[in-house]
Design brief:
mainly alpha; transcription; 434 Repressor (Amino-terminal Domain)
């Protein structure tokens, strides 16, 4: 099995929002990760990567849709 050592998986802290909370917040805002991805010219699954690893551009798009800053959602990534 080949593993890509260049991909760094983020280990969320208790301060970071749970992935389900991010998805629920997007739903409350009337959108979802797939729709946001397509609206910004990405493949449907692209923004989902931000839930698992640092991806500043995707983090900004998600945070803007929710109405907060990326630092509020993922404080461990911006410490």
């Amino acid at each position: 099995m080949h593993t890509n050592t260049n991909q760094k998986i983020c280990q969320p802290t208790s301060e970071d929002w749970h992935q389900a909370d991010i998805v629920a917040s997007l739903k409350k805002a009337g959108t979802n990760l797939s729709a946001l991805s397509e609206q910004h010219g990405f493949s449907r699954s692209c923004l989902r990567n931000a839930l698992y690893r640092r991806y500043p551009k995707a983090e900004r798009i998600i945070a803007q849709a929710i109405g907060v800053t990326p630092e509020e959602i993922w404080p461990s990534r911006y410490a």
